[in-house]
Design a protein that fits this description.
This protein is α/β, with parallel strands linked by helices and 228 residues long. The protein has helices at 16-28, 42-46, 65-73, 87-95, 110-137, 158-169, 177-184, 193-208; strands at residues 7-12, 31-36, 53-57, 80-84, 102-105, 138-141, 146-149, 152-153, 175-176, 216-219, 223-226. The protein has two domains: 7-129, Rossmann fold (3-Layer(aba) Sandwich), CATH 3.40.50.2300; 133-226, Arc Repressor Mutant, subunit A. It binds calcium ion (CA).
Amino acid sequence: MHKDTPKNILIVEDEVAIADVVKEYLAEAQMEAVLLSSGVDAATTILSGAFDLVILDLMLPGIDGLTICQEVRKTSEIPIIMVTAKVEEIDRLVGLETGADDYLCKPFSPRELVARVKAVLRRTSNQMVLSNESSQRLVVDPERWIVTFNGVNISLTRREFILFEILHSKPGRVYSRAQLLELAYDHDSDVIDRAIDSHIKNIRIKFEAVCEWDPIRSVYGIGYSYDG
Ligand code: CA
């Protein structure tokens, strides 16, 4: 992020006290925030092109955050951080393919939120360039079980290939570990969540040996997505 181009953030939140605190913290981080306290015109405002990132509350008067997010995602890739009051909601949201870039649960520390905002902005701006270029050089062939980058073979194990192919088939979609387990393993197998982490780690090591690009994004506390 460049210091000379302050980022414009839209906060869609009906709890004005929370939004005001967030706004102050963002200002300290050289970001300007505009507050919208109803869901009704949110999608139109988000799509106006005036904002670099949206902090979107789930429970809103008028139209809820989930509907707004899905509406926006039909036409825009603007970074969205979704905020919810229930931690158990996050798993459900991930399952619904909201298209949000990150999720945060209330009550959150404003400092944590600002850190997430910075991280999402950094990732989306850097990754957009790197991922677009890199994913064009990536070939995933499910029929021959082959992955190549720039023509160089990345030799994944069968399980690694299955996992990578699941992520790769839906770029940007965030999968929880539980979802990956269900999709990549037989239902009766007693594999644990950690197995997913260790496969992902190995996939990254294999990519690292061939290119500078890490095709898999870790979503804190949730799971993984393909970043192409
Ligand atoms: Ca609310």
